[in-house]
Amino acid sequence: MSLAAPAIPDYLLSREQARRNERVVQLAALLIGAVAIALAGWLLPGLNSERKARGFVIDPDTIKGLPPEVILARQTGALRGYLIVRLSERSTRFKEQGKSYDAAQTASWICRLLPNFPAVWSHHAWDQAYNISVQRYSPEERWKWVSNGIRLLRDEGIPYNPKAIKLYKELAWLYYHKIGDRLDDHHLFYKRELAVEMERVLGPPPTALSADDVLAAFKPIADAPGDVESLVQQDPQVQQLVEQLRALDLRPDKVLLEFVARNLRTQLQLSSLLKEPPQNAAEQLRQKRIALLTDEQLRPAVDRLLACVRSKVLREEFKLDPNRMYECMEEFGPFDWRSPFAIGLYWSWLGDIVTVGHIRTSNDANDSMNTVRNIFFCLGNLVQQGKLVLEPNWERPNASALDPMPDLRYVDRLHRAFLEYGEAQFKDDPEFRPNTAGPNYKAGHVNFIESAIALLYLSGESGNIAKAEEYLDYLRKFNPEPDGRTIQSRYMVPLKEFVMKDLLTRLDTYKMALPAIGNTLGLAIVLAGQDQVAEATARVKTAGEMWEYYMKDLKSDRIDRRKMDPLPYLYADAAKAFLSADGVDIIYQVRAWEKLQRPLAEALPEWEGPTTQQIIYDDLRDYFVARCEAHDPPLDVSKAFPEPAGMDDYRQNPIQRAKTMDEDVSEGERDFTP
Questions:
Q1: What is the pTM of this model?
Q2: Which residues of 481-504 are buried (b: 16+ CB within 10 A; e: fewer)?
Q3: Burial of 43 from C-beta contacts in 10 A (0-12 / 13-18 / 19+)
Q4: Domain boundaries in the chain?
Q5: Alpha helix stretches (DSSP H) within 207-360
Q6: pLDDT tens-digit map of 256-284
């Protein structure tokens, strides 16, 4: 009799079944895990490439030679994300508490933890230049924070991300908008600081008559070696010069550059007009240095040494490549590098060049388009204010006298830039039309041409007037009515009417015409004082046209109160106003006094009356004496404002001015329609 096997309890069977199922699940999980790992490995190269392209990882190819703290950031692994979050919170808290320096230091660490992430650099640079700067009260403090934002991008962000178009756009925008534009209350202080800073390095601008002259003056800097010691070893003449300079306590570095900038300016300086020139050891040393640096036999060696030192400082301190600067001038024009618009254009142009082939996302494409826009903005402002007249205050740069003036040499280049960049950006756009700036740039292009036509015509120079006619003809052809065929009616007028239309409507009455003519003559006097005699003469001629327009129906009028004095007397009134204005730096008045007669003589060669200086000298002499005595140190009035020749004869027969206009008597309405 056999015994039956005992029945296995159900709970044991269930447990065994669970074990089998668990093994199946484990095997399935292992299999899925293996597949997932294999797939992850397959996807990893693409993901790493994308992370590298977007700046989420530190690129070993660009980190070589960078500071240790940046290299250390690579070793933090996953901890880096946590640190970034905590530091961002800390930076925000510091800003809310007004602890700007702590916030800036924290931002610096965030940037070093993400050195290849361009958005981090642009955000914190903007924060310092715009948000933190406006929390400061003094212009010196504000300039410090604007400079901090520039250095963050220029000295660190771009070197870590040389192909990031966003950073070039942001840096160019800081120069164009924060410094160059007028929205900040202290924009004039920034402009002066930058102008003096650049003149310390490049010295006073060369006396140049053409764009080629400016390029030729800069070429030695572009060609110079970046190492002064190498130049000294290779050039015996420079070596001898350096030894002589060191004997006079001048080192071949920024100290030498600043001495040259301070003491070797070509324009008339107040130091030559002092009532009692200093006679001390410091002045004797200064004169010895000047004599050495202006020795004609040493001139070639001095030029080579200065070019080398300037090249070195530009590269190391300002991150400006002199070779690129020269190429940029060849492309766009003879820059005055003291202008924020020149430097802003440089960074926009450079960014557009070096990032070709690295525009990968839609954001990059937008940044690329706006980088090109910066080129237009900067060129447009160079047309309006590209010539700088600077009288530096070396101890307080933001108290310097700085006057920007139009520079029409950039008109053609800006027009060409609109056409070239417009085609490059929008040639595949169905709305693009040849010989235009493309759909996105068209409005800006047309506005520029219309304003340029006025500037060219009012300059009075025959070549510029011919250019103005060409640009008006361009508008007739390429800016038609919306139907695309009909010429706009406002362009179907002669050039003079197109330019003078608004101006002539303001010449209908004495009260309107006199200040319009006076302002034009006042600008002529300012230009004359800045050695821009040709431009000054053109303004006198324009004022003459305005005078003729107003007087054309009055020459036979018996009512003297409606007549104006002859133009030379109005010019004398404008000169008197400028030369007695307390808000004008005295050096400008001294230079204007010296050049005062030339624009009038060239514009009105038939004038045989007294000179402008003769007409106004006696009225202003007491003011001249007081102004020169009040200057620190006092100036010799006989040198600054010498008495004009022929004053004794003039005093015997002074001019008889026309009767003053009675402001209370109405003229009635007059029709001056051409």
A1: 0.79
A2: eeeeeeeeeebeeebeebbbeebb
A3: exposed
A4: 211-333, 421-503, 543-652
A5: 211-223, 228-234, 236-247, 254-263, 281-293, 299-316, 322-332, 340-354
A6: 999 999 888 766 666 777 777 777 788 88
